[in-house]
Amino acid sequence: MPKDDALVGDSSGDSSGDSSAAGGDAAATSTPPTTDLPDKPVDDSSKLRAFLSILRNFIGVSDIASVRFSLPAQLLEPIPNLEYWNYLDRPESFASIGKSDDELGRMLEVLRFWFTKDLKYVKGKPCKPYNSVLGEFFRCNWEVKDTEAAVSLPKESKSTSTAASKTASRTASRTASKESISKTAFRTASKESISAAPSIASTSAASASPSTSSPETVKISYITEQTSHHPPVSAFWVDCPQRGITARGFDQISAKFTGTSVRITPGQHNLGIFITLAHRDNEEYRLTHPDAHLGGLLRGALSVSVADTCYLTCPRTRIKAILQYLEDGWLSKAQHRVVGAVFRYNPDNDTVSRIKDIPATDLLAEISGSWHERIYFNLPNSPKDKHLLIDVTPLVPASKITPPAEKQLAYESRRLWADITAAIHAKQYSLATRLKHELEESQRSKAALRKENNHEWTPRFFTVAEQHIQPGRPHLTDDGRRALDNLHHDIFDLDEKLTPSGEFAR
């Protein structure tokens, strides 16, 4: 799901009033309203009541993510948004993409990664981190044991060897066969209780031969930067040189309060996650985000639900996956069900957007399960033999390795917010709110100076969204590439640089 920056529009994210993607904001120097709370600890239910009272002011506003207002420190989680949000909750799943020699297996490995990227919402509660300021950045490494095996397919699956015949027959199949694929199977999957134990023929991990040697340690590096604030956009890049895997994209959301929940959708620059496999002839996979709902405001227990469709595509292999997140009933216990299909498609004429419209002759695999528990796949010629793709039940988000405090720059997330974070942890909320307001005012002053001098903000590590021939795919600058390469070697030294307006920002 899309990044949750500004689920409630905290002005610390928008106070800069400057944008490399959309230009300056005439109202950049205006001071957003504040909400004062007593300087005492606030429990979760009190936080939700305060959030709800604020959100009620925005009923009918088309995008509250673009509205600036200042939240008191008591309502914030003491963590920077750029640090909190990333798609590497389980880095070993990312590092395992591309292991399979079968192109269907590789798409299933991408799906396995997909179902681990939002563990923070599965295992924890939604929270409101600090919104990012313009030019803020975060970098880190993960070092994990390479314990995720390649997805192993049953011997009867010959997706690679039959690719040519599938391609040749695609046109004929689309005109001759409009029948729904395995309608009964999907209907059954959508109704069955997820807790019921399915018949499992094998699992992807168990199918692999056990190894007596200890797993290799794999390093994955990550850098993200807030590149714009009107609209608020950040760029990210993930790199695993040992496996030849990269991921990149822009994060931007649109949020609307419906009266009982907040609907979160991808913004115009957020076209998904783009994963490239250098060791597989540069196969590129695009993963789009479904809409999500932040609910539980009235009950006093925040939760994230998804009832939408998303798509994973690989033009080079001509394989596409459709995932449909099913809506839970109002009175039933949430089961977080998802069904899906993997099939052959024509990248030059991609017209299939619903599972039921997939020609049966193009179907490669079916997906079913709960994205909070276990996900299974089965092949169309053996629909009752379900194979475990991923079990997220025992998993928790992995820890990051960040630069030492003395190596962090002024606009590096942890250092930028360090004093505010310390005050919140010490329950000195008045101090934290005052420091936060000072940071916001500093950003507004810098934005006004840039506007006065006709200086446009230029990101340090990434190019801006409008400069790209391929939309949705950020590019690293020379500084960005150097910073990422240094991360691979645990070199955290970076120089502070003057911005166009003469400020030492990073």
Automatic annotation (TrEMBL):
Low complexity biased stretches: 8-36, 159-175
Gene3D superfamilies per UniProt: 2.40.160.120, 3.30.70.3490
Residue ranges of coiled coil: none
Top-level taxon: Eukaryota
Span list, region Disordered: 1-42, 153-184
InterPro entries membership: OSBP_sf, Oxysterol-bd, Oxysterol-bd_CS
Cellular-component GO terms for this entry: cytosol; membrane
Molecular function per GO: sterol binding
Pfam families: Oxysterol_BP
PANTHER family per record: OXYSTEROL-BINDING PROTEIN-LIKE PROTEIN 1 (PTHR10972:SF212), OXYSTEROL-BINDING PROTEIN-RELATED (PTHR10972)
Similarity-based family: Belongs to the OSBP family.
Protein's name according to its UniProt entry: Oxysterol-binding protein OSBP
Species of provenance: Trichophyton interdigitale
